[in-house]
Amino acid sequence: MSLFLSLFVDLAAFLLVVTGVFFAARRWETTQSVNRRLRGEASSDELKKKSRMPSTLVKRQEVKNPVLQWVQRTTLQDPEERNKLQRDLALAGFDFPAAPIFYVMTRFCLAVGLPTIFVFWQTLSAKPMQPGFPRQPGQCTQDPDRKRVSGRP
Length: 153
Hints:
The radius of gyration is 31 Å and the shape is flat. The protein is mostly helical. α3 packs across α5. It folds into 2 domains: 1-53; 57-125, no CATH class. It contains 5 helices and no strands. The relative contact order is 0.04. The protein has helices spanning 3-39, 44-52, 66-75, 79-91, 99-124.
């Protein structure tokens, strides 16, 4: 058997064993957690998670992140516009409270980022776009010292 084939078989076997052990350990941990909960012996980590979970059935509509709150205060000041934008985004499938904020941030990043990327790309390009692009139909793109082939002056 060649060296390459031998290495490939060894690597495949190793990855298969690691994947199997990972899934077996995860399955065992899940089974143990379920059994502890059924017996009423929840661990302290599970009790902490349970105490942090909200007990209300209604979803919170406020944003807690200070950066997102700042963006909301500075850009989405008109409640009518904010509610209309949130309604439109909810109809599009983005129904979490910070959706309008992320929408505004994305628009701002695109407005600043796309022209910046274009200018940076032009500096790295072998043939950057020339001013006055696209050229007018009557303009000559050849060397001005050469004679024109067509019969026009």
